[in-house]
């Protein structure tokens, strides 16, 4: 059995300051974000919301599904979609693909909300865990960034089925978004 010598041991004090406070996103945008989740001034927040909404409106699939953006803050996005017969599975529940589509989009837009206007994201990988059937009036996906990076951002989304004002957690997605150059509008 090998024993670590003193020179090979890592002292916890040596690691201090190497991790980032989880509540503060890194400065990936050209304008710094505050830990409060608000940008330096109202104009910059409006720019972020306009950029996300413009991109969202160009997503043919989300438009076809009737999805809407409910909330946009740096590092977090909420998307809702109605549960209609056209997007149900054989037992009448919301199809798992519907939960995946809005969860992936909520996670992706949460990542995009931390990047500058010259960047977009694409999904590199995404896993989903279905927790319960989706029944009710609509699905709500709450996306967030777990670990932001310069090139890759680890994200998650929790999907809830809303029925008469009550929410039931039906899926959790975790994945990786990759920064790519923004495409011309």
Automatic annotation (TrEMBL):
Belongs to the YigI thioesterase family. GO terms for molecular function: fatty acyl-CoA hydrolase activity. It comes from Antarctobacter heliothermus. Its EC number is 3.1.2.20. Keywords: Hydrolase. Residues 91-166 form the Thioesterase domain. Pfam families: 4HBT (PF03061). PANTHER family: 1,4-DIHYDROXY-2-NAPHTHOYL-COA THIOESTERASE 1, MEDIUM_LONG-CHAIN ACYL-COA THIOESTERASE YIGI. This is Medium/long-chain acyl-CoA thioesterase YigI. It catalyses: a long-chain fatty acyl-CoA + H2O = a long-chain fatty acid + CoA + H(+); a fatty acyl-CoA + H2O = a fatty acid + CoA + H(+); a medium-chain fatty acyl-CoA + H2O = a medium-chain fatty acid + CoA + H(+). Residues 1-42 are annotated as: Disordered. Residues 1-13 have a biased composition (Basic residues).
